[in-house]
Write a structure and sequence with these properties.
By secondary structure, the protein is mainly α. It has two domains: 236 residues, Rhopdopsin 7-helix transmembrane proteins; 133 residues, Homeodomain-like (Arc Repressor Mutant, subunit A). It has 17 helices and no strands.
């Protein structure tokens, strides 16, 4: 039995896995504006991190200490491509996941069902399995199907991930070209996934050669580590990308335009027109409002509009729009004639797509929830 020990690389990989688990929690809990997309990305990082943990335990010999981690990530490759595909559908098209979409995870469910006897085996059985003294268990009804033991699962997983990589490129490559920054972000994320597939496939090729060693095996972990760090870095530097606004608008950093050559006179005209549109037309009520559309209504470029919003409000486009929505929502919550409206009706009326986003933004800007705000206002009026 291998004496458990860490080397430099396994220490780095374990550190990356722990950070990945932290990043997945942050994406899942804190960034709430676009919860379906955030949760998918969070789940993807979580799966990569757990896989990395299992690999580290295997390389260091600590898998004998934690035998129930054995094979826990075997079915994850059947989810990687699916998660990334639906993440892009939500980000690019505001897609809502429906019950029929569960068909995409049938391969994972089938694989999990076949592997259940292994997952639920006791620690003693898994120890014998790891030491080569016992073959992995299967369902009794599968024993007669001798081919079940020789199914090339690794290559089926590789083909499955490749299919979804192609689907992503076919469906979203054209959309990603609408903006250079979007294209760069999309290329990085898809490129890292392609790199993972390549490293995953290379392992099962190189393992057949005599010169194979752990350094080659580390390629898979390198690709997962880069994937985790990329999402963590991008989520930190570009937090708006995980919001409910369009990718094209979210990816733009308002500070880029602080030194724009727009003159003070032009800036004042833009601001005046913008305030008039928002106060009279209440364009912010449109839940699909985008910077391009607003710039067209104001009669300026989106670059200049971004600069004006940032310099005069100290916030970006989506923060500015949400502040106007919450301002009207507060008026509606206080209005006696609107008391018959429930919270979700008010959320829709001011431009939010769902109650969760409305509650989160409302509390962020006011410190209390819409229900608390309405109750406090009602109590204040009754005490007058």
């Amino acid at each position: 039995m291998q004496q458990p020990s860490f080397d430099t690389w396994t220490t780095i990989f374990l550190f990356a896995a722990i950070q990945g688990l932290f990043v997945s929690c942050v994406l899942f809990i804190i960034k709430k504006e676009n919860r379906p997309a955030n949760r998918l990305l969070s789940f993807l990082v979580f799966l990569f991190s757990i896989t990395l943990v299992e690999y580290v335990l295997y390389w260091t010999g600590h898998l004998y200490t934690f035998p129930h981690m054995l094979g826990i990530s075997e079915g994850f490759p059947f989810l990687f491509g699916v998660i990334l595909y639906f993440y892009f559908k939500i980000v690019f098209r505001n897609y809502k996941i429906r019950p029929p979409d569960i068909l995409h995870i049938l391969p994972f469910l089938l694989f999990t069902m076949i592997m259940l006897p292994r997952y639920f085996s006791g620690a003693d059985v898994k120890m014998l399995w790891m030491t080569g003294n016992q073959t992995p268990p299967v369902f009794e009804w599968l024993v007669s199907f001798k081919t079940i033991r020789v199914i090339p699962w690794p290559w089926i997983k590789i083909i499955h991930m490749t299919i979804y990589l192609v689907l992503i490129l076919v469906d979203f490559l054209a959309l990603s070209k609408t903006d250079p920054r979007v294209r760069k972000w999309f290329s990085w994320l898809v490129g890292l996934f392609a790199g993972f597939i390549a490293s995953y496939a290379s392992y099962f090729i190189l393992v057949k050669f005599s010169f194979f060693n752990n350094e080659w095996d580390y390629m898979i972990s390198f690709s997962m580590m880069f994937f985790i760090y990329f999402i963590a870095w991008f989520g930190y530097l570009q937090p708006a990308i995980f919001s409910g606004f369009s990718l094209q608008e979210s990816i733009r950093e308002p500070s880029r335009y602080r030194n724009s050559p727009v003159s003070a006179e032009v800036s004042s005209e833009i601001l005046c027109t913008l305030e008039k549109i928002m106060n009279e037309d209440k364009l912010y009520r449109e839940n699909d409002l985008r910077l391009d559309k607003l710039a067209m209504a104001v009669g300026t470029s989106r670059h200049h509009l971004s600069q004006v919003i940032n310099s005069h409000t100290g916030s970006g486009f989506f923060e500015y729009i949400n502040s106007l929505r919450i301002r009207e929502a507060r008026d509606l919550l206080k209005s006696k004639s609107k008391e018959e409206l429930n919270i979700i009706e008010i959320a829709y009326a001011v431009g939010f797509n769902n109650k969760v986003s409305f509650n989160t933004t409302f509390k962020k800007l006011t410190g209390i929830t819409p229900s608390e705000f309405r109750r406090q206002h009602a109590e204040a009026k009754s005490n007058q």
